[in-house]
Amino acid sequence: MQQLEALTRDARALALGELALTPYEAEVGRQLQICNACRYCEGFCAVFPAMTRRLAFGQADIHYLANLCHNCGACLHACQYAPPHEFAVSVPQAMAQVRGQTYADYAWPPALGALYKRNGLTVALALAAGLALFLVLALVMNGTLIHAPLAGNFYAIFPHNLLVAMFAPIFLFAALALGLGVRRFWREVSPGDAPGAAVAEAAGNALRLKYLDGGHGEGCNDADDAFTLWRRRFHHATFYGFMLCFAATCVATVYHYVFRWSASYGLTSLPVLLGTVGGIGLLVGPAGLLWLHLHRHPQQGDAAQKPMDRGFIGLLFFTSLTGLALLAGRDTAAMALLLALHLGVVMALFATLPYGKFAHGIYRCAALLKWAIEKRQPNRLQLGSD
Q1: Residue closest to 97 by CA, chosen among 122, 72, 69, 61
Q2: Which residues are CB-contacts of 125 (< 8 A; sequence separation ≥ 6)?
Q3: Of 40, 65, 31, residue with least CA distance to 211
Q4: Would 315 disulfide with which of 55, 106, 156, 349, CB 3.0-4.6 Å?
Q5: pTM, to two decimals
Q6: pLDDT the model gives residue 386
Q7: How many helices (H) and strands (E) in the chain?
Q8: How far out from the chain centre does Cα 349 lie?
Q9: pLDDT tens digit sequence for 275-316
Q10: Rounded CA separation 325/32 (Å)
């Protein structure tokens, strides 16, 4: 009863214009009211059954549903009210515009939220190039840029403690900033405690990218209304490639601190195998995503976010490319140069993580968890079924 009363109050406040929504949020609310009346797309993804639990859409609801949307594009091509219809319903585009806004709104520290609007391809690659150039100049000044082959001993170029001092603050700050940002998001949209079954379901949906199947298992719509699974596959290659590379770093850390085994490690060692397979995935995935990004239908995303999207894709791609090049050339006289290039790109990637497209995965997982909790609660409106 309390939930119904709250929804009624929100509906009245919206009608009176008392809830201060941004233009993007108001547009999502307008389109969802139309979708709630039509409900043709109810079975496409989690957004639509979650939508039917609401009579009105406040700011927290809009933020939640926008991040629950996976931008598969299926609803755009199925909608009878899509442009050029006068209702101009384009849910993927409207949701994408709000998602970009939420990344900035929940950013920590708040003053850095504006970086989302400037973290484009040029900025990201310029930062990577600048950091790599700084490391190269340091090697030149130290006289170690050109050297005899060192059998892959990276620490002869950059000592282990120096690498830790360089990367630990960046990594810890990125983790802190992302953690505090999603904590603010969760406090706004959270429906209550998370039972274990809901956590397991949300984790499974995130790891399988369930809602990139268009609601029917055939995949997303990209350039047109044809279905394809390539976007899902490239996302999987990117995500699991990144996680395998991260696992390689973690295993190497255990080797160094627990077993006292210093790098370099053999080509058949676990860190190298994990890094190689992950690096290939992180090369193929971003390349494929960039190709799809260049060919996507213009109403299946926010044009203003393209620089941010491509900047993140570019950093992932060059992280893998320089890492694989370093592996191939670690026993040559070019190892120091390759190492400086790789470290520069990796530092730029982690420095921009809290203020780039990486955040979308974190907020989407939180939205999936909210949906997994919410669907286990009674639907007091009885406007739709799960």
Answers
A1: 69
A2: 311, 314, 315, 318
A3: 65
A4: 349
A5: 0.87
A6: 47
A7: 15, 2
A8: 13
A9: 999 999 999 999 999 999 998 888 888 888 888 888 899 999
A10: 48
